[in-house]
Structure formats: structure tokens, C-alpha cells
Write the C-alpha cells for this entry.
Amino acid sequence: MSRQELTFIGLGPMGQAMVRAFLGKGHRVTVWNRTASRADALVAEGAVLAPSVRDALAASELVLLSLTDHQAMYDILGQAPEALAGRTIVNLSSDTPDKSRRAAEWAAGHGARYLTGGVNSAPSGIGAPESFTFYSGPEDVFAAHKDTLEVIGGTDYRGADPGLAALFYQLQLDIFWTTTLSWLHAVAVAEANGITAADLLPYASGTLASMPDFLGFYTPRLDAGNFSGEVERLSMGVASVDHVVETARDAGVDTALPAAVLEVFRRGMAAGRAGDSATSLLEILKRPAA
Ligand SMILES: NC(=O)c1ccc[n+]([C@@H]2O[C@H](COP(=O)([O-])OP(=O)(O)OC[C@H]3O[C@@H](n4cnc5c(N)ncnc54)[C@H](OP(=O)(O)O)[C@@H]3O)[C@@H](O)[C@H]2O)c1
């Protein structure tokens, strides 16, 4: 792999881990951060701190961003938009698909090429082979920088639409955050009953470990629009979720999360889905509640 010069903007926990990975592979890294002191340790490890955004952009053709959101990108790059011409911007900051498309247009308007990245790893996983990042944008731009981007983990190129990487990233987080909250809710109910998170761990892990089989069984049926209730029926599911809500209420625990689930199940029942599989709730979720 050729060792490249690159500029890295945004030195939160994620940006710091990424810069360390590049320095570890011998890349020459110019850094810039709004709070300059966050660069101190990286400079001691070999990074070069640019005195301004303009200098940071002038230093390298390849410019990586790891910021809280896209507004931060405009706040930073808007300080020296004339320095964007001829640069390749790889924005590894979380935001929505639509904002990613607008950011790509904005960058193109200033003469820069643009890739969106969606990072599927905690900072501790950066550089590990099992971590990966979704990318989207022009394929030739991705191909030109793929080897360098692989320093921070695997690459999964999703297509030319700059919104796609953000979309796949948000789909993962849609699953991750609701799953995390459901686990915390179960821990709250457990603790209210004198059961610790450690006691629950093997059972919570077992439930989550069964999910790939569950998803694997239902995915082809979802794609075929088959919601047949031969294995389980929504009428059973609504009673089951009702018991979850009641168990939480009896424990004196917040019921907002399972109550929201119950509400969707009830909308499915009202739509005449009682005899269908609970996966028929997909049809309910496709539209906002009236
Ligand atoms: N951390 C994770 O576990 C994780 C995992 C996957 C993906 N991500 C994504 O990776 C990105 C970076 O994560 P992080 O944990 O490093 O985020 P962070 O702690 O929010 O740090 C983000 C960086 O954004 C800068 N920033 C924010 N608003 C700014 C503004 N208006 N103007 C200039 N700079 C601004 C911060 O500068 P200052 O230092 O000056 O505040 C900092 O350098 C995020 O989009 C996050 O969603 C994070």
C-alpha cells in the first residue's frame, strides 16, 4: 500500500483513533481541530497540526472529516471554501442521507470530490479487521483511495449515491439504539425485582443470539409480502407485549418503551391483522400513525 499524505479534521474520540491508525501505518497526517489542544498527543506521536483550516486543506489532496454532524463540516470548511478545489473530502461524520447528498453537492460546487462514510465501529475497533465502514459516492474516487481507507478498517462500497452510506449506517443504528434501550429496560425491570444485570446477561445474550435465525426465517417472507400466521399470530403477540408492559408497571418501572411497542401491535390488530404473523406490523410501520 502506498503511504499517502492526508489531512484529518475532527479529533473527537473517533478522529483520534483514526489518526493513530494512519500514523501507525506510516502515513503523514496533518490535523486540525476546533479545540486545538485535542491535537497535542497526536502531534507528539508524529501528526502535524495545521494553524488554520486553509493550511489543513492545502496540505493534502485527501481530507478526512470526523465531526459530530454535517453542520460542523460547513462551520469548518466554510472558513476556507476556496481551498476545497481539487480536494477529495471523505466525510466520516454521522448525519442523514439527504444531508449527505446536499453536502456532496456543496463540495462539488467548490470543485471538490466527495465520499460519504458511515463508520460501523467504536473508536476501540478502528483498524481491527472485523470493523468496517460504509462508503458511497463516485466509484472512481472510492477506488483511488480504497487502500488508504482500509487502514481504519474494512470498506463496504454501497454505490454512487452519496446518501447510501449514510442510509445503511442509519439503518444499523435504527436497530442498535432500540435494541440497546430494550436491553436497558429489561435490566431496569430485573433490578426492580432484585436481579442484577450480570444475572440477566446469559439470558439477554441468548435472546439476541437467536435473532439471526429469526431474521433469516422471516426475511424472504418479508421480501415476498408473506405475513402468514402459521408459526405465530399477532393476536398472541399483542397479549404477550401487554404482559411485558404490565410486568414493568408492577415493578414500578417506566413503561414508555414497551407501551410504544404495544401501541403498534394494537394498530395491527385494528387493521385486521390478528391472524397474521407479528411481522405483518411491517405494513403498519410503513406509514406514520394517523
Ligand atoms: N464515538 C463512537 O463510538 C462512534 C462510533 C461510530 C460512529 N461515530 C461517529 O463518528 C463521528 C465522530 O465521533 P466522535 O465520538 O469523535 O464525536 P465527538 O466527540 O462529537 O467529536 C466530534 C468532533 O467534532 C467537532 N465539532 C463538533 N461540532 C463542531 C463545530 N460546530 N465546529 C467545529 N468542530 C465541531 C469536535 O470539535 P471539538 O473538539 O472542538 O469539540 C470534535 O473534533 C460522529 O459523527 C459519530 O456519530 C462515533
User: Anything to note?
Assistant: The mean pLDDT is 97. Strands lie at 5-9, 28-32, 48-49, 62-65, 88-91, 113-120, 132-136, 154-159.
